[in-house]
Amino acid sequence: MKRINRSLTLVTAVSLVAITGCAGQGGDYSAPPGAGSAAPSANGSAQAGAAVITVKDFKYEVPGSVKPGSMVTVTNADSAPHTVTAKDEGGFDVEVPGGGTAIVQAPDAPGEYEIICTFHPQMTGRLVVK
Fold first, then answer.
1. Where are the beta strands (DSSP E) in the chain?
2. Hey, is 66 helix, strand or coil?
3. Contact at 8 Å (CB) between 81 and 71?
4. pLDDT tens for each residue of 31-47
5. How far apart are CA 103 and CA 118, in angstroms?
6. Beta partners for 96?
């Protein structure tokens, strides 16, 4: 009987460690495929952390401009989820959970890209790529 109890205790402990280990994986939000890319652009100008868009109080705080193809970190300071979505042909759309971060690649073509939160259409902004 003691042997069975020890075995059950061991199996339970191993299971808890495995479950805890799995739950701890993926602490950072990963955008769905096609929502942004961490890969450098063809011209090699992508720079992780070079620019930051902050979402706070249901408003975008956007840098003055970003370089074409650069990586843009999106930080959501609100508790609600938001998106940074190009209204036109910008080709970017990333969802950022409340309190989370995500990375989106700026378009390769210079220009001004209107952005909107698909969850909160009153949230708008402009990303300048030059």
1. 51-56, 59-61, 71-76, 82-86, 93-96, 101-105, 111-116, 124-129
2. strand
3. no
4. 333 333 333 333 333 34
5. 17
6. 82
